[in-house]
Amino acid sequence: MEGSSGKAPLVDAAFQLLLACPAGLSRSQVSVDFKNSYDREPHPDKKLEESIEHIWNCRLAVSPSLFNGSKFRYGGFHMIDGEGDLEKPQNLCIHLGLTDYKTFVGTNLSHEWEHFLVPVEEDVTRCRHTASPLGNGAIVETADSQILLLQRSVDVGEFPGHVVFPGGHSEAHSISDRESQ
Fold it and tell me: Which domain holds residue 98?
């Protein structure tokens, strides 16, 4: 599928490191800005936008146990410096919106995912038409220096039966009023 510009966007690398915190951040150094303005923007190409529903229906036909749960959508971040004081640590504010699993399957996991991208370098703008759910993952080392791995069910939508690190996507079903939080 061609995007509204008539050209398929180019992808330069397999991933882009958006933030590095080698020393880590404490819980008090991380906050969330949760607003509608960080939700996904529909793509202007109506056929591409309609493909989300088609892809979802095809996936449901093969895996009827899938369900369309709500997810938090990554909408960027900004660093809040130590107010000019080099002794004060920086703080991270993560921007979150809402999306859902169907839109994730139809955009980020689609074979046409590159067409949902805006051809710019800046990540938030580039991904404004994708679901971009916020995921989490962990590497767990046991007391006897073993690494914990899990085998995914064969009934899941992504990588059925694969061995993975523990993680997933947070469910956002209990959130109701974003603008007042």
Answer: 27-135
